[in-house]
Amino acid sequence: MRSAIRYLFLATVIAALAAFGSGAAAATMIGKPSTPRVASIGPSNGQVVGVAHPVTIRFTAPVTDRAQTEQSIDIRTTRPLPGTFAWTDDREAVWTPSGFLPADATILVSVGSTRTEFRTNAGVFGEANMSAHTFTLTVGGTVVRTMPASMGKPGYETPTGTYPVLEKFRSVVFDSRTIGIPLSSPEGYVINGEFAERLTWGGVFIHSAPWSVDQQGYANVSHGCINLAPDDAEWVYHTIGIGDPVVTHW
């Protein structure tokens, strides 16, 4: 009888421990959700971009643990690259390099089991000097062209800072309403532009401006954009690329 009672007691204890362990394991799984699958990574595999280009990772489902997900993202050449994360929404993380990516390099991006790679160009930099009224393009550390330019006039000054090229347009319509200037204003306009590169989502571009050629190199007369002569703007359009940094300063 005593042996039977002891057996039943031990069996009860073992069953309780098994149940506790199973519950603990389940609690651990719920507390640390796995990272959703990757929907896309930009730049795309094999793409060549400028040294200021960010890396954008889009997931197939909302991310509940951003810190854990960021830890699962590895961006490197032969060693990890420093950078910071920002989230545009609950499915998209944007990694921005600290400083610039190395030029002429292969950048490897790993997120869990997803792998991709892209390349950087030789290092194309633009410089808008608003005091000298010039725009200079440097490739691989060598100045290849300095052009007369006109930047933002008083009240519409071109912002200072470093801006990667976001988009390029062979032709584009510039509408003052997109930057808060009504068409009824003396400053209002709708202009067909050419050879344009977007620097900010707020409406700052580099572009061809035949209407301000006489002021380029001498005065700032734009509404914030970097105005170039048609031939110079076309050359810049074919030389500068997405992700190339442009520095604007006085």
Automatic annotation (TrEMBL):
Keywords: Acyltransferase, Cell shape, Cell wall biogenesis/degradation, Peptidoglycan synthesis, Signal, Transferase. It holds the Pfam family YkuD. PROSITE patterns: LD_TPASE. Transmembrane segments: none annotated. The keyword Membrane does not apply. Residues 1-18 form the signal peptide. The active site is at H207, C225. This is Membrane protein. It comes from Nocardia sputorum.
